[in-house]
Amino acid sequence: MQTVYYLILVPMVYAAFAVFIVGTAVRLIQTARRPAHPTTLQIFPKKQPAWLYALADTFLMPSILRHNPVLWFFLAVFHLAVLLLIIGHLELFGDWPVFQGVPHEVFLGKGFVGLAAAVSLLYLLFRRFHAPVRDLSVPEDYYLLILLFLTVIFGSQMDWARRWYDYDVMGVGAYRAYLWSLVTLKPFVPDEILYSGHAFMLVLHVFFANLFLMLFPFTKMMHTFLALPMNLLKRG
Amino acid sequence: MDQQTREDLLKLFQTKLNRAMVYYLETCTRCGVCTTACHVYQSMPQARYIAAYRAEIVRRIYKKYFKGQGKLWPAYGEAKELTEAALQELYDAAYSCTGCRRCMVYCPFGIDTQMIMSIAKLLLVGAHAEPEILTLLADTSIEKGRSLDFFKEGFLQGVKNLEQKVLEKWKMEAEGKTVIPVDVEGADLLYVALAGAHSIIPAAAVFNAAGENWTLSFFEAVNFGAFVGDPTRTKLILDRIVNEALRLKVKEVCICECGTAYRVMKQLSGTQPFKVSSVTEVHARYLREGRIRVSKAAFQGQAITYHDPCQIARNGGILDEPRFILRHLSDDYREMAPDPRYNYCCGGGGGLVALGEDTLDFRMKSARVKAEQVQRTGASLLATACENCHTQLSDLNRHYGLGVNVQFLSSMVADALVVS
């Protein structure tokens, strides 16, 4: 079993990040090299400055707020939660004074960020079982949401175990050792992670996360990088 | 469908894949916010009328042939093969879409469904499955450009007949000037009308009242190449006008009330020594500069509302000028929508009105929400600045018993002229 754990925690992680980083870079470069559209694609009336409105469109999603406020709420919660979780993961590498603007133990939110992410993912998934969105959706839409949900639930579970149920065998120190070892290309998985009772939780979390990262560049997940350029086109 | 046809069509598909198009094809998250944007869906709530659904018809073909998942895991995105059946779906999608881009206003990424539909239209043209009448009309326009001498006499005679009507109505002294000048080299403004007296007579009256140094184009502005989604024909039709403008050395090309013609001329003619304007802008300019005066007497007692032609307003930027003009024509002007961007399409664009009787049933059913928008204003006069919108709105007026008087804005300006 430990061999399987190790395979998922080390080689598969390297493969996933390689595919994610190279894949995303290649796709973005390929797309950027295509010729620009010969004329404007903007929607009028013009709102100036265009770049500011494009930023607002991208990060505040005003048209979703206007036309589907419930969806907007869960999308906002989800994306904000993802941002906080990314920051939290960065803190598993080391301390970053800039993130301590709001002083906290690693993973701001005492477990509620993960919970919010999980609940909003369930909303996004369940809404796709209703017409008319159901008629529009393809398997990709369900696969990605389920993959994310599994990643979030296994990851959050580890945090909840630590925050709410005093399970602190797998501590921040052990993660720092593991993650740094990956970054410095001298992979090493501490025993606390490999042999603890909750090891399978981490392994499943990393497994689903790896799958997600590997799919990322080839799917609609590229909206992460393309949303801003597209809104710039729309705003002129 | 045989393999060669498929390969030829896919080559056509490839020509459309510039950076913006790839953004649009890659990024849709199928969030469904565009659902309530489309007038067709709002009038007839069926999944195939959702903007993203129409786009998916094209996108699933893209996934099959231009993405790895097409070969490795087609079920993932429901990648679709390009077959005769697919062509039928492309037809239904493309010609149930007027290209109004109201969906783009709602989309959090600003995906341009009209652009994606242009791929569908091009594939149909490539497979000879497009509505033939549109190609025929486009070819007629192109032929006129090539054999102008053949058409000149008839055109000039027709114009002479119209001059009488201009003089009768507006009793302006011609002062030795031609009432409707044609082919005048060195004129300041080239006015491109449509093949219809209503498109020429009122405009002539206003240009003359403003003392404009203008000339009438031999060609009609309408671009059937754009309706059928054929870039080559679109350009050839556009080029006739560009070349005439260059030959006559005009400073400004003024497009009549035709939405697609204005947008194509404005956005696709490239850098030229003349500027492009819409007749609505020019009339607003004349009013602002005091070159013409209008009286509110002409439309006394009528509540007026205005339908923004999509290609001129949301897609062309001319939103303030018509309102400026209407406020000079009436004290009772009412908006149809809280924000002009949210004005519904009339339901006749993208070539649908040009297809006439064949699309009448669909056009009436799909634009129910437009009729409701008009009705809610309580207006008695419905003004607009686009030929196909006028036809469609007149059809809607009849079909839904709206009891409004549908008018061209330019003709209202002419009717309200105060000629000293």
3D structure, described in words:
The complex is a heterodimer of chains A (236) and B (420). Chain A has one domain: Transmembrane di-heme cytochromes, Chain C (Fumarate Reductase Cytochrome B subunit). In chain A, 69% of the residues lie in helices and 0% in strands. Chain A has helices at 2-9, 11-33, 50-60, 62-67, 69-91, 112-126, 133-136, 139-165, 172-183, 191-194, 199-215, 223-235. The longest helix of chain A is centred in the middle third of the chain and has 27 residues, at 139-165. The termini of chain A are far apart. Chain B is α/β, with parallel strands linked by helices and 420 residues long. Chain B has three domains: 3-127, Fumarate Reductase Iron-sulfur Protein, Chain B, domain 2 (Orthogonal Bundle), CATH 1.10.1060; 132-289, Rossmann fold; 297-416, 3-Layer(aba) Sandwich (Rossmann fold). Chain B has helices spanning 3-15, 19-27, 39-43, 51-66, 69-72, 84-94, 102-106, 113-126, 132-146, 148-170, 197-209, 224-228, 231-248, 259-268, 279-288, 320-329, 360-366, 368-377, 387-400, 409-415, and strands at 189-192, 214-216, 252-255, 275-278, 304-307, 333-334, 381-384, 405-408. The longest helix of chain B is centred in the middle third of the chain and has 23 residues, at 148-170. In chain B, 54% of the residues are buried. Chain A: Residues 75-235 form the NarG-like domain. Chain A: Keywords: Cell membrane, Electron transport, Membrane, Oxidoreductase, Transmembrane, Transmembrane helix, Transport. Chain A: This is NarG-like domain-containing protein. Chain A: GO terms for molecular function: electron transfer activity; heme binding; nitrate reductase activity.
